[in-house]
Amino acid sequence: MAKDQSFAAKVAMAGAGESGNQCPTCDEKYSMVKLVVSEQVEKRDVWKFNQRMVAVCKCNKSEAYG
User: Fold this and answer.
1) Which of 11, 55, 60, 61 makes an SS bond possible with 30, Cβ 3.0 to 4.6 Å?
2) pLDDT tens per residue across span 16-27
3) Residue 42 domain boundaries
4) CB 35 within 8 A of CB 53
5) Does 47 score more than 90 pLDDT?
């Protein structure tokens, strides 16, 4: 039987293990952002959306946000 947890409990558990996620260059904590990129598939002439999670800090903010 699965153990039920509230959303707040899950968020607290996820945030507890992030002490090592700091950028070595700017010494700022990474924030995770979902990056969605649209690409056109040439064979079928349709659009496809690729999603991935990216760690963002001061150093690479301009690359992620554009």
Assistant:
1) 55
2) 655 557 888 888
3) 22-65
4) yes
5) yes
